[in-house]
Here is the input.
Amino acid sequence: MYLSLLKYIEEAQKDFVSIPEDRKNELQRLAGYIRSRLETNSPANLIFICTHNSRRSHLSHIWAATAASFYEVADNIFTFSGGTETTAFNPRAVAAVERAGFQVENPGGDNPHYLIRFSEKYPPIECFSKKYDDSPNPQENFAAVMTCSHADENCPFIPGAEFRQSVAYDDPKEADGTDEETALYDERCLQIATEMFYLMLHVKNPQI
Here is the structure.
């Protein structure tokens, strides 16, 4: 992985102690689902869902994939993201990803298909806004991970999901256009990184 990203990951791992106990329980429950799939040699498909598929779901998708690779559990774990409607991966969230140490390729367009790289040795993560049931997301046998309370409350049923877990985050959008914008996006990015690394560590070793 890129050196700048490894330094960021080290900081995220130090923040495990800041995760509240009820939050750890949510993440451990999701880790248990992932392990149950891996133990039967079945793919663990995770779709991270928020309303617009523009910020929190993308950050979760990216960090979960990165953490799975970091802890060497990625062989049969596949991460995706989607929304209840389509917009675009928000440039402010993209900038936070770049500040964290990822390499980002932006092809342009109204809904760019960004290519996010954590290493030159692995294929990039493709990120663009889509509905949760759009291609290329799986249509069945997946975990629906609800990253915002609005989507969680307004989508009580996700067709095809065999498991559902709320891991909701506050929306950094509230700081758009203010002096706090960069700081809040960076805070949310680090929070999601910390929790996705905690998640994948517990996939690898539930006794930790």
The mean pLDDT is 96. The radius of gyration is 16 Å.
